[in-house]
Design brief:
There is one protein chain. The protein is α+β, with helices and mostly antiparallel strands. The chain has two helices and three strands; from the N terminus they run αβαββ. The chain has a three-stranded mixed beta sheet, covered by helices on one side. Strand 2 and strand 3 form a beta hairpin. This is High-potential iron-sulfur protein. It comes from Alteromonas salexigens. Keywords: 4Fe-4S, Electron transport, Iron, Iron-sulfur, Metal-binding, Signal, Transport.
Length: about 100
């Protein structure tokens, strides 16, 4: 096994950080289509565009992406789709903080 020198480590670390940053941007950029309730994944996770669970909705879930205040935003659970910020699914987890 080849030892890792400082220069190689820093190059790898900076590339990883850039990749993670651009990956998050790509997730938001690629999400174009609104998630429909009849989507197979949405059905499996009981997605609804209007939450009936008090205090729980996509806007306060840890998986939602994008800026607060946007009505439809990307979600890590449904890649390539936009979820309604007022929606809910069974994968909902309270956003930390």
């Amino acid at each position: 096994m080849k030892p890792v020198n400082r220069r190689h480590f820093l190059k790898l670390a900076s590339t990883s950080v850039i990749g993670l940053t651009l990956g998050g941007t790509a997730l938001r950029a690629n999400a174009q289509e609104q998630l429909q309730a009849d989507d197979p994944t949405a059905k499996a996770l009981n997605y609804t565009p209007s939450s009936t669970t008090e205090g729980s909705n996509c806007a306060n879930c840890m998986y939602i992406q994008g800026s607060d205040g946007e009505q439809h935003r990307p979600c890590a659970i449904f890649p390539g789709k936009l979820v309604n910020a007022e929606g809910w699914c069974s994968a909902w987890v309270k956003k930390p903080g």
